Amino acid sequence: MPTSSPRHYLMCPPEHFTVSYAINPWMDPSQPVDTGLALRQWETLRDTYRRLGHRVDVIEPVPGLPDMVFAANGATVIDGKVLGVRFANPERVPEGPAYLAWFKEHGYDEHQEPTHVNEGEGDFLWTGKYLLAGTGFRTERAAHAEAQEFFGYPVISLQLVDPRYYHLDTALLVLDEENIAYYPEAFSPGSRRVLERLYPDAIIASAQDAAVLGLNAVSDGYHVVLPAQATGLAARLRERGYEPVPVDLSELLKGGGSVKCCTLEIRA
Ligand code: ARG
Question: What pTM was computed for the model?
Fold first, then answer.
């Protein structure tokens, strides 16, 4: 029976959000962005978490860092240990120190600056047992070994192959310790086999659900906050006993992110 547990999230308001460069296929700098609308949609997401009983802390956005709203990329935190990030694209590099500074200021004494490129929870998804780790577009394979050494949990490396699903959290959703949903076409044949072996009962997302970033969702073990456009996935989740909680983040989709991208989980 899916059961929720209280969570602790870090989020960053999209006060400076815009699309001024393109580092993934979703971003088109010639398309107008409504920053006010992005902010209102983000506030709805924050309020949804709080209504569900979760704690949300907020980090101050830095002017000139339009992608800082995508807090999932800010760190990976397990057992109160903080692995900092190193971005692949120069546009986002300054976000790494900004997020690490927040953790230092808030009393997280066990932290490490990474040697290899890793984009935090964009590519590292904690199941409670394993750290599922994406590579292919952003996070380097060497960073998987670095994370395993730092956290002391088994890391499962997964190869991403479709540029639209450039981060693991755009193609795979952790529901709880035993269950995931994913879009197989985003992975190499070998990685698909790995996922089939580990999760034979996984929910398989359709191309339509993947294309609205439906898998870029956040589960507390029972409630699954997901992009409102992912109606097929919501139905599948309901069948399995989860409670889908749709939220519209259409404006942030122009940056190539949705619910999960805006949410960094802090695990004590
Ligand atoms: N524009 C951002 C980038 O391309 C979006 C990041 C989305 N974050 C995520 N966790 N998938 O880096």
Answer: 0.97
